[in-house]
Amino acid sequence: MTDLASTATLAASVPAPSIEYGALSPMLIVFGAAVLGVLAEAFVARHYRYATHLVLSVGGLVAALIAVVLLAGTESTAVAGAVAIDGVTLFLQGTILVVSLLGILFIAERGAEPRLRARSGPGTWSRAAATLERGVDAFTPQASAVPGSATEAAALRAGVATTEVFPLTLLAVGGLLLFPASNDLLTMFVALEVLSLPLYLLCGLARRKRLLSQEAALKYFLLGAFSSAFFLYGVALLYGQAATVRLGGIADAIAQHPDNATLAVLGIAMLAVGLLFKIGAVPFQSWVPDVYQGAPTAITGFMAAATKIAAVGALVRVLQVAVPGLRDDWRPILAAVAIATMAVGAVMAITQTDVKRMLAYSSVAHAGFLLTGPVAANDRGVAAVLFYLLAYGIGTLGAFAVVSSVREPDGDEATGLPRWAGLGRRSPWLATVFALFLLSFAGLPLTSGFVSKFTVFEAAASGGAAPLVVIGVICSAVAAFFYLRVIVLMFFTDPPADAPVLVSPPLTTTIVAVTAAITFALGVFPQPLLDLADQAATFVR
């Protein structure tokens, strides 16, 4: 009884955390929609799952975006200080939700692949197979089946659809929303795992080239596991330095003992491994081209945009809130990583003959450009990164949507660069839109990419990193070469005799049109968003 009474007394002395449901509403809505999606997989008839998931996913993301807008101006913490709701959090969450909404529509596309004819009889064991013919999505009908096996063939004949991709995507979105909002390192680690595990699965679910897709998923999983271990080791070292995992507490501990911060320096180095892996920065970029090429294109576009937004946001929060007192230690290292990332991405992209791999190395180069913003170590750098992330995310998703619209006669994606020859003659509007995205990536005027690079370079220069800006401009010029090479190939080269088929599925076409319009609008009228980013560049400490 005495032990029981002491235990009860000890439990009563520990205050229960206050959970601010309103401040957490965007994340709770997305996680709630994901749970409903899991229940729909269990209880909704197969024939109605696609429509049910689409309504749940789009409705949940729109509701979460409305919640973010209603929280504008909030400056507080939630769940005993574990989650920060401030300008940076809300801007990044809004950006992630916009990209995720377009990504869900991309994932839901069923008009790009050749349509399956309705079948009945042996081997057709779903209601969908015995009804009207319909399009198919980009995902394997039965992920557990061995590629090329009789089981997979039976699932194809039966018209089975892998609708689990919708709740998996929503779970990843929930983790993405929490990642840049985390105000302590354990919450950040949990968010990292929540966003990563669904992506590992989604990368291996391609309908075509399944072995390549499974190889990409396995490589992403194994390397991601190592990076997570480094992240957790960094958390342990920072806890050893500060006796807390809260970002503000770490900053206070370093400020009290600035001459005895060896563990903190080692800890932030280990922590950066996990974050830079998700960003795709050198030397942690080896997974990027293989995963981007092997994953379903809709997942590649979503992952390339949303994951980079969340990871860069988390990195900026850690550097600005937890270790501002160590900026003299981490700024030179981050500048070196940015230089290596820009150079490797730009040079390696020149050698690629596959469009998806070229865009993968383009993503690596842009990771380097993005890292020039945090090197500035000031509010202007934070605002520049926020604008860059939104512009880059929209353009990247649009570019991959264009890639999925160029198909071989058998329905496979025509990702080889020679297959894109003469595209401008066969489909001027599609080639023009893709050229717009490439020119934006290159940073030419009247595109969102030009404004993005100008703002991050200007912020870095104001922070005393002028040499980094010079190298960034040189790398941008190198990168422009392979972008212009694709444009020349599309408009000034004759198409091959067996030219690929150009498809215009409704959802993908809508995504291409919307992203192209935003890319052009942000290049011509960037000031409203720049002002919003300036206002949002605040952290709760």
Helix and strand topology:
Blueprint lengths: L1 H12 L11 H19 L2 H25 L5 E3 L4 E3 L1 H21 L42 H9 L6 H14 L6 H19 L6 H33 L4 H10 L5 H18 L7 H8 L2 H26 L4 H24 L4 H22 L2 H25 L2 E2 L15 H4 L1 H15 L5 H15 L3 H26 L9 E2 L3 H19 L2 H10 L5
Antiparallel strand pairs: 1-2, 3-4
Summarize the structure.
With 541 residues, the chain is an all-alpha fold. It has helices spanning 2-13, 25-43, 46-70, 87-107, 150-158, 165-178, 185-203, 210-242, 247-256, 262-279, 287-294, 297-322, 327-350, 355-376, 379-403, 423-426, 428-442, 448-462, 466-491, 506-524, 527-536; strands at 76-78, 83-85, 406-407, 501-502. The strands form two sheets. A two-stranded antiparallel ribbon has the order 1-2. The protein has a two-stranded antiparallel ribbon with strand order 3-4.
Helix content: 55-70%
Would you tell me the structural class of the helices and strands?
mainly alpha
Number of helical segments with 4 or more residues:
21
Biggest sheet record: 2 strands, antiparallel
The separation of the N and C termini measures: 44 Å
Number of strands: 4
Order of helices and strands: HHHEEHHHHHHHHHHHHEHHHHEHH
Spatial order of the strands in the main sheet?
1-2
As residue ranges, the low-confidence spans are 116-133
- Global Rg: 24 Å
Shape: globular
Mean pLDDT across every amino acid position? 87
Beta content comes to under 5%
Question: How would you describe this structure in keywords?
Answer:
two-stranded antiparallel ribbon, mainly alpha, globular, 541 residues, 21 helices, two-stranded antiparallel sheet
